[in-house]
Design goal:
alpha+beta; Aldehyde Oxidoreductase, domain 4; 3 domains; 6-stranded mixed beta sheet; 28% helix
C-alpha cells in the first residue's frame, strides 16, 4: 500500500508528525500546506474532524513549521486539498482505527460495536468511560502510517461538504493577522539597496549622504554588493533606502530595450526546444489556418509588499515568512548562509496575497543575512512598493501560435500549438535564484532554466494540449534561455495564455465554419463533465439570444480542465466595449468532485475570475533602457473594486467523485471568455493581452 500513498505521507510516515491530542481536549493537526488566502487550512480541519469524529471546534491546525509540521513541499498548483487533504483523511482514519482496535481488545468486543461521538468512545448506546485524550497513547503514534484504514464514505460526512467560515479571516479583518503586524522583542527595521541585476557590482556608496537623507542615525550593513539600512524607526530607514540609489555607483549593470517587455521579443531567442504529444508530421492541406496570441510579463501585485522577520540567537536562525514552502526556504537559506538546515527554523506567517512565487522568499533571505550580521535582535525587512514591482519574480510573457489543418466541415484534423516563454518556476529550493545571494561575495552560478514536468501539469505547456476530439495534436515548446526579466511561478503558470489562445481560436474556427461557437465545441467534445459545465454557463448567460456581433455589447465563453487533470470550469462573460472594455457580468460552473467547503470553493472561483479580468484587461510590466518602469499602481493598474462585475457561480454536486484541485481553474477560461466577448462586441479580434484602449483602437482601425 505504501507505494500508493500520497507523497505527503511517504515523506512523513510518523503519525505523531501529523496529529496530537492536547491536554485541553483539543486536537492538534499539523500540516505542511499553508494558508495563502485560499481557505485550505479550514478545509483540512473539516476533513480531520469528520474522520476522527470530533467537533470542528476541537481541531487546531499548525501549518508551515519546520520544527513541528510535516514537510509537504510547496503550497502550489491547487494541490492542497487534492494531495494534503487526502493525506489528512488517511492519517485521521488510521489513527481512529488504531485506537478503536486497541479499545476493542480491552473491552473484549468487536471494533464494529464501538463508535465515537465528539472524541468520546461508546459501545452501543453506552459510554465506555474512554476518549481520545485518556486512551490514546504513545504506541498509537510510534509506528509508521500504513494507509490501510478505510476512510468514511461521503454519506457519513457531517462537516465536509458544508459551508464553514474561514478561520483566518476574523483576525485579518481586524487588522492584525498578517506578518506585517508582527512585533518581536528587540526588533529593528531594515530596508535594502537592491542590486540592479545579476552580475552588477557596487563600486561606491556615499554613506554620509544617505545618513543625512535619513535625518537620524542608522546602521548600514554591507556584505559584498548587498546593502541594508537598519534602525529602530521604520520611517528613518525608509528614507535612507529611498535616497540610496542616487548615492550608489554600480558597474556591469544590464541595459534593456523597450521591446523586451513584449512577448514577440521572445520569439527566435535562444531556447531549449521540445515537441510533445506529436504522432506524425503536421498535415499539409490547402485548408490550413493559423494565428498567434500573446501575453506580456505580469506581476503578482500583492496589496501588501513582501515582508519577513529573522533573528539569530545562540547560533540558531529563526525566520518568519509568508513563503509557499517553509522546508524549501530552509534548504535555500542553508545554502546561502553556508550552515546546516538543523540550525534554521522557518515558520509560516500570513501574507497579503501570493498567487505564486513572489518576493516572500527573497525578503526572508534579506532578513536572515542581516540577522546574522546583527545577532540577538529581530530584524524586520519590508520591501518598498517600487522594490516589489521592480524585483519580484514575474509571470513570464508568452507567445502562443496555433496552426490547424481543417477538414471539409471546418473541423480540425491536425492541431499544432507553438509556445515561446521563459521559465515558469525558479523556486528557492537550491539557493540559486535569490536576489540577495546574487549580491553576496560568493554568488551562485547562473541558474539552469527548466520548467515543471508534464506529470506536474507543465509550465509553459500547461493546458496547451486541447481536450477536444482532434485526430492529431502536438505542442512545440520553446523554453527561452536568455529572458530579460527574472520569472517564476504566477497563478496558473502557462494556463491563462494557453487557454486564451486555444479557446479564442475555437471561436475563430467556429466563425470560419459558420457554426455557433458553443455547438462547434460540443460537436468536438465527448467528455460529459466538460459538456455539462459548458452547457450550464451557456444556459444561464442567455447564450441563445446573445445577438449579432459588432454592437458594442458582447457575450463570450471559454472552458478548461485545469492542468487537464484537475477541476473543470466554464466561464461566460458579458462585456461592453466603448473606449475600454468593461466586464458587466460573469457566470461560472465548476466541477471539482467532492467539495470540502462550498463557500470557500466559490470564493476561490470568484477570486480567480476577478484576477483574470484584471490581467486580461489591464496588467503588463513595462520596461525602458534602465529596467522596469511600472513601479506603482498608476503605471501598473489592476482592476478596481468599482470594476468588479456581478458574478454567479455554481458548483456541480458530485460528492462521490474524488476531490479535484480548483484554486486556479477559472483563470484561463475567464481570459478566453473575455477575448471572445470582446470579439463579439467589436466584430474584430484582439489576440494580444492586455486588451487595452490602444489595442481596441488598433483593431477598429484595422477593421
Amino acid at each position: 500500500m505504501s507505494d500508493t500513498l500520497p507523497a505527503s505521507i511517504q515523506n512523513n510516515r510518523r503519525m505523531d508528525k501529523w496529529i496530537r491530542f492536547n491536554p485541553d481536549r483539543t486536537v492538534r493537526l499539523a500540516v505542511g500546506k499553508v494558508e495563502l488566502g485560499q481557505g485550505n487550512v479550514t478545509a483540512l480541519a473539516q476533513i480531520a474532524a469528520d474522520e476522527l469524529d470530533v467537533s470542528l471546534d476541537r481541531i487546531s491546525v499548525l501549518s508551515g513549521d519546520t520544527e513541528n509540521a510535516p514537510d509537504e513541499g510547496q503550497t502550489t498548483s491547487s494541490q492542497s486539498i487534492e494531495v494534503s487533504g487526502r493525506s489528512v483523511r488517511l492519517v485521521s482514519a488510521e489513527l481512529r482505527a488504531r485506537v478503536l482496535d486497541r479499545l476493542a481488545r480491552r473491552l473484549n468486543c468487536s471494533p464494529a460495536e464501538l463508535s465515537v461521538q465528539d472524541g468520546e468512545f461508546r459501545r452501543g448506546d453506552a459510554p465506555t468511560g474512554h476518549d481520545y485524550w485518556n486512551f490514546a497513547n504513545a504506541e498509537d503514534f510510534a509506528s509508521d502510517i500504513e494507509g490501510n484504514a478505510q476512510p468514511k464514505p461521503p454519506s457519513a460526512y457531517r462537516v465536509v461538504g458544508q459551508p464553514v467560515p474561514r478561520r483566518d479571516l476574523p483576525v485579518k479583518v481586524t487588522g492584525a493577522g498578517f506578518i506585517h503586524d508582527m512585533v518581536r522583542p528587540d526588533m529593528l527595521h531594515a530596508r535594502i539597496l537592491r542590486q540592479p541585476g545579476r552580475g552588477a557590482r557596487l563600486v561606491s556608496l556615499n554613506e554620509g549622504a544617505i545618513r543625512r537623507a535619513a535625518g537620524e542615525d542608522i546602521r548600514i550593513v554591507r556584505v559584498g554588493s548587498f546593502v541594508a539600512f537598519v534602525g529602530t524607526d521604520e520611517y528613518v530607514v525608509q528614507r535612507a533606502a529611498a535616497a540610496a540609489p542616487d548615492h550608489a555607483k554600480w558597474e556591469n549593470a544590464r541595459t534593456f530595450t523597450p521591446d523586451m517587455q513584449e512577448a514577440a521579443w521572445l520569439v527566435g531567442q535562444p531556447s531549449s526546444d521540445r515537441i510533445l504529444y506529436a504522432d506524425g508530421e503536421p498535415a499539409s492541406t490547402a485548408n490550413v489556418v493559423q494565428a498567434r496570441y500573446s501575453r506580456g510579463y505580469v506581476a503578482h501585485a500583492a496589496m501588501g509588499p513582501s515582508c519577513a522577520l529573522a533573528e539569530f540567537r545562540n547560533g540558531h536562525l529563526s525566520v518568519w515568512s509568508h513563503t509557499q514552502g517553509v522546508y524549501p526556504l530552509r534548504a535555500s537559506l542553508a545554502i546561502v548562509l553556508g550552515v546546516k538546515q538543523d540550525d534554521i527554523t522557518v515558520r509560516h506567517a500570513h501574507g497579503a496575497g501570493c498567487y505564486g512565487h513572489n518576493g516572500a522568499d527573497d525578503v526572508a533571505v534579506d532578513a536572515a543575512v542581516i540577522a546574522r550580521e546583527i545577532p540577538d535582535h529581530c530584524i524586520r525587512v519590508q520591501w518598498r512598493r517600487e522594490e516589489e514591482f521592480a524585483y519580484e519574480p514575474y509571470g513570464t510573457a508568452m507567445s502562443v501560435g496555433v496552426r490547424v489543418a481543417l477538414d471539409g466541415a471546418g473541423k480540425p484534423l491536425d492541431w499544432t500549438c507553438d509556445i515561446w516563454a521563459a521559465t515558469h518556476t525558479q523556486r528557492p529550493s537550491s539557493g540559486g535564484n535569490m536576489l540577495t545571494h546574487e549580491a553576496l561575495p560568493t554568488p551562485p552560478p547562473e541558474p539552469r532554466y527548466s520548467d515543471p514536468p508534464e506529470a506536474g501539469g507543465g509550465g509553459g505547456t500547461r493546458n496547451a494540449l486541447p481536450l477536444y476530439d482532434f485526430p492529431t495534436k502536438r505542442i512545440i515548446h520553446h523554453l527561452v534561455l536568455t529572458p530579460p526579466l527574472r520569472t517564476s511561478a504566477l497563478r496558473g503558470l502557462g494556463a491563462l495564455p494557453n487557454v486564451f489562445a486555444l479557446e479564442c481560436f475555437m471561436d475563430e474556427l467556429a466563425e470560419r465554419a459558420g457554426v455557433d461557437p458553443l455547438q462547434y465545441r460540443l460537436s468536438l467534445l465527448s467528455d460529459p463533465r466538460a459538456r455539462h459545465v459548458l452547457q450550464n454557463v451557456a444556459d444561464r448567460c442567455g447564450w441563445a439570444s446573445r445577438g449579432s456581433a459588432g454592437t458594442g455589447r458582447g457575450v463570450g465563453l471559454g472552458w478548461a480542465r485545469y492542468k487537464n487533470k484537475a477541476a473543470y470550469a466554464a466561464v461566460a462573460v458579458e462585456v461592453e466595449v466603448e473606449q475600454e472594455v468593461r466586464v458587466k457580468r460573469a457566470w461560472c460552473c465548476a466541477d471539482a468532485g467532492l467539495v470540502i467547503n462550498p463557500d470557500g470553493a466559490k470564493n476561490q472561483l470568484d477570486g480567480g475570475i476577478v484576477q483574470a479580468i484584471s490581467m486580461t484587461l489591464k496588467e503588463q510590466v513595462k520596461v525602458d533602457q534602465t529596467g522596469v518602469t511600472s513601479l506603482d499602481w498608476d503605471s501598473y493598474p489592476i482592476l478596481k473594486f468599482s470594476e468588479v462585475p456581478e458574478i454567479s457561480t455554481e458548483l456541480v454536486h458530485a460528492p462521490d467523485l474524488p476531490t479535484l484541485g480548483m484554486g486556479e481553474c477559472t483563470f484561463g477560461p475567464t481570459a478566453a471568455a473575455i477575448g471572445n466577448a470582446v470579439a463579439h462586441a467589436l466584430g474584430e479580434r484582439i489576440r494580444d493581452m492586455p486588451l487595452t484602449r490602444a489595442r481596441i483602437s488598433e483593431a477598429l482601425l484595422r477593421g
